[in-house]
Amino acid sequence: MSRLKTSSPLTTLHPSVMGPIGSGKTNFINKLTKTKEEEVHQLRPYTHDIREFTFNLSKDRQYVFADIPAFGDPSRSDRDTLRTIVDWIYKKYRANLKLSGIIYTHRITDDWVSAPTRKSFNMFVRLCGRRNAGRVRLVTTIWDNMENKEIAENRASQLEANHWKPLIEAGARHKRFDVNSSRCAWEIIEDLTEWGKAHLIQEELEERGRGSPESVKQLKAEQRRSKDELQQTWGDKFSRRIALFGKNTQADLAVNVAENDYVIL
């Protein structure tokens, strides 16, 4: 008597792609989903909302890529962008859908890290938290526009040694999207999702959002630990940046925690 074959259950992974404006994140997603550029532009009002693209890699493996709005958009505040992201994360969390990792794009053509780029990255670090760094890939893009590869290699080394150093030390990896192809993009995604693990960012935001005595105590301890240094750096501005814990909603508290400069994750 022949045994009936059972099909494997569908595994759905949820990687997200973030990065500054113009850093190549939409092109990266295009290469993954084989979406034409003109089709993507038809979807835009500008990317104020999270856009999701579903791609079936095989009959038992599905990817849902999220294109996350960039910080530094001149048409809206960074706080509005942050609130959009946090609300989306909570929605996924409540639906028991957990992120599989985060791609953060940075164009290698930049000869220096500008203030908006630095601020965007700092917001990203505060949002995801350093304990989740192992599920982050810092992806340099637009390598094909660099004629001098030695300069590009030097910039990549500088990013690793300076701008990205804290996150890399916490477990993040630098990957190069150095060939503008579907194959190169998928190699990065496969490295990110090789174990199919869920991202912990939702649990971390959930802990902050509850405003539990333990989480509030931890945050206040972090405040005290860095207060002297920050007071010296920010002066009077420091006193205006204290987050309020008591009356905030769950998502509001997470936004406040991620937004304020004195929080060390």
Question: Nutshell version of this structure?
Answer:
It comes from Pisolithus microcarpus 441. With 265 residues, the protein is α/β, with parallel strands linked by helices.
Describe this entry's structure for a reader.
Residues 206-230 are annotated as: Disordered. There is one protein chain. This protein is α/β, with parallel strands linked by helices and 265 residues long. The protein has two domains: 11-202, 3-Layer(aba) Sandwich (Rossmann fold), CATH 3.40.50.300; 208-259, no CATH class. The chain is built from ten helices and seven strands. Strands 1, 2, 3, 4, 5, 6 and 7 form a seven-stranded mixed β-sheet that branches.
Q: What keywords describe this structure?
A:
single chain, 265 residues, alpha/beta, Rossmann fold, 2 domains, 45% helix, globular, disordered C terminus, GTP binding, GTP-bd, G domain-containing protein
CATH topology of the largest domain: Rossmann fold
Radius of gyration: 20 Å
Specify the CATH homologous superfamily of the largest domain: P-loop containing nucleotide triphosphate hydrolases
Q: Quickly name the level 1 CATH class of the largest domain.
A: Alpha Beta
Task: Report the uncertain regions.
Answer: 38-46, 225-250, 261-265
Q: How many individual domains?
A: 2
What fraction strand? 5-15%
Annotation field: number of helices:
10
Compute the separation of the termini in Å: 59 Å
Tell me, what's the shape?
A: globular
Q: Encode the helix/strand succession as letters.
A: EEHHEEHEHEHHEHHHH
Topology, number of strands: 7
The helical percent reads 40-55%
Largest sheet: 7 strands, mixed
Give me the secondary-structure category: alpha/beta
CATH architecture term of the largest domain:
3-Layer(aba) Sandwich
What is the typical, i.e. mean, pLDDT? 75
